[in-house]
Every structure is written in C-alpha cells, then in structure tokens.
Amino acid sequence: MKEKIDQYFGITKSGSTFKRELTGGVTAFLAMSYVIFVNPIILGQAGMPQDAVFMSTILSSAIAMLVMGLWARFPLGLAPCMSMNAFFAYSVVLQMGKTWQEALSTVLVSSILFILLAISGLRSTIIKAIPVSVKQAGTVGLGIFIAFVSFKNSGIIVPDEGMFITFGGFHDPNVIIAFFGLTTAAYFLIRKNQYAVFLGMIGAAICGLFIRFGASMDWFHLSESVVAGLPQLPSGSPVVLPTQPMQSMLDETFLVAVTTLPKMLSADSIIVILTFLFLDFFGTATTLSAAATQVSDIKRESFEDNKRIYSADAIGSFVGSIFGTSSLSTYIESVSGIIAGARTGLMSVIVAILFLLSTFFYPVLSLVTPAVTTPAMVVIGIFMMQNITSIKWDGGFEEIIPAFLTIVMMPLTGSIALGLVLGFLSYEICMIFAKRFDELPPVMHLISLISLAYLFTL
C-alpha cells in the first residue's frame, strides 16, 4: 500500500518523503485552521447560522483539498477566503441589502463560471486584460477593508459625530483583547513563526478568559452584557459528535443557493457574481505565484497555468455554495506546508483529514468572539497590503488615479464591488485622456460596460 501511495503521488520522484508530507500537512493545517472559527463569525454577521457555517466550512474545505490532492496532486490547501467572506457579509448582504441566501446563489453561479473558464483556458485571457495596477490595488483595498471591519467589530474604532469614527478606548475589554492578540501575532510574525495568525488568536482568547475570570472574582467591574460577549470555555466537553452543526447545516443552508437562482439575472447580481469571480481568480493566482517561489525544482508555469489547480479551486467554491459558505480559494497560508518540505498532493489529503477531524471540536467556538478574530483579520490585511509595491506608481496618473480610487473607496464606502467598479471605469477613462485607448484589450471594454451598468443600479 505504501508503495502504491508513493507511486500515485510521486513522493520519491519529487524528492520528498512520507514524513515530510505529513509534517507539511500538519504545518499547513495549523496555519489555516483559524478559518474554521473565523468564517462562522464573519458570515454570522450576515445572518447565517454559525453552527451551520462551521460545518459547511469544514466539509467544503475538506472536499476541495481532496480534489486538489487526489486529482491535481499539488500541495495546496483551500478554504473559504477571508476577502470573499468579508465581501459576502459586509458588501453583498449588509451594504447591498441582499439576503444571505441570494449571496450564496451568486457564489454558486460564479463557481460554475470559474469551472468553465478554468477548463476552457479563457481564465488567462481575462486575467491579462485587467491592468496590473487595478489588480494589485484591489488586493490592497481589500486588506484595508478587512482590517477596518475587524477594528469596528472589536470596538477599536467606534462612530463619532465630529470625525465620523474615533478610537473606542480601553474601557472596553474587547479592545484590550484585540490588542493583546495583535501584539502576540506581531511577536510571532517578527520571529518568522508560520503559526503567527493562529497563535495571535490563542493569545486573544487567553486574554479574554482572564478578563472573564477577573470579572467573576470582582477584580474588574463589568456589566453582564459586556461579560456575556467575552470568550468563554465550553460548558461541557470540548470534544463532541458534530450532530448539532450537521443538522443545522442540512436544515438551514444545504442547497439553499439553488432556490434563489432565478434572482441572479439582475444587474447588481451580475456585478456581484463577476466580483466573486474576479476575487477568486486573482486570489488563486497570487497564491500560486507565492507557492512557485518556494519550490525551485518545479517551474512557475506548472503552478500558475495548471488547469487542474484552478478547477479544484472552482469546485471547492461550488461545493461550498451548496453546503452554505462563501467562495473558497487557495490559501496563502498553505504554502507553509511547502516550506516545511511537502511536494505532493498527499499533503493536501492530510490537511483535508485534519479538517474533518476538527468537526468534533465544535464547542470550542464559544472561545471565538469578534475580538479574538481581530489578529487573524488584521494580519491578513497586512499580507494583502504588501501588494502596494506592485502598483505602477511611476507609470503616470493613468495608473495612479485608478489605483488610488480602488484602494480608498473600498473601505470608505464599505463596498468592495464599488471600489473595483470605480477602478475599472477610471482606468478606461484615464487611458482615453492619455491617448492610449488603443492599448486597451476588448475584454476590458466589456468589463467597463458592465461596471457602468452596475453604477446605475445604486
């Protein structure tokens, strides 16, 4: 059996070993595992049942990684993407006013389109049509947007009549929890520890438990409502059969995306679908580029132009929408498994198995509050912010203006879609002003027309 597994995955051929694949799988799981607890919190703010999202997150991620490992045979992990669950909850549902059921339908349609584009090869044509500055600015804007939302949810920033927003103050224990978690994550980031995100959340949870204990001992005088929002240990065993979240998923989110498909023909729905498609495209492309730099004996093209990898990504989003979660994408954190020595799809299979085992730790969700997730959200924002150096700041104002608008309008308007639309339109207009209209590919004109149509729906 061991020899057959070796031959199927090409472990020895790739210069790896079973031990390295196992080590890489465990490493990638620990680096990615925060999504299991963060995703239900984010989508819960859109009105989705958190226990159902917990289960759908795990199942869809596991299936996607099994496809990646057994079919594409590449060492990459997939799970609901932080930028796309933020877009799902805060832009599509809370800002645009769509129901979470309709939002799931947009994920379903975008995943089907992604599958078709990945198989046909049109994906590459579309990616090349969108200017680099707008692509990178979109990633930067998303990073700022995600950090902004996490600061708001943890109480670090609050509404203010004079200045619109202001610092929430350390009288709120959630602000202390969030900053303690951020400090913990910062320490491990600086020490180049690949578990920095996970450890930041652990630090925040421990801080929250200490404050809860202090309140119960009358060390701190906090209201009952404040104490109720603090992290708490599971009331029973932390390990249980996942019957409740499984039943919740089957009753409340499973196949819901199919029932609202008829509403997907509106202009705003089409924009949402295309935005999910755009985010998935470039999120995966960025991860594959990072992964390629860690494997010197595999050509970059083997990652970036591999149709099976993109197809596995799209299949994951399709399965996720059926079960009840936002779009899945290839995780940059899973590259830590490659750094640890993994070289084959066996790593992805190991991560999938570990995800499935985590279903038994459902009660641990009581430890995860918005303040506890702040380190994860902010660190992801920091990673995405690094793309700002890839923007062509010396390429003339026809590059600078669209990039600036894309970056600032996402967090200021609370709409990821609007930021992208303004970036696309302003790029086309600025290129006309610069007398460079003939440099624009036909696909870019189509994207601009769709963007213009979206503006008229607002």
From TrEMBL:
It is a multi-pass membrane protein. It is found in: Endomembrane system. It holds the Pfam family Xan_ur_permease. Keywords: Membrane, Transmembrane, Transmembrane helix, Transport. It comes from the Bacteria. The chain crosses the membrane at residues 21-46, 52-71, 78-97, 103-122, 134-151, 171-190, 197-215, 270-293, 314-332, 338-357, 364-388, 400-427. Belongs to the nucleobase:cation symporter-2 (NCS2) (TC 2.A.40) family. Azg-like subfamily. This is NCS2 family permease. It comes from Enterococcus lemanii.
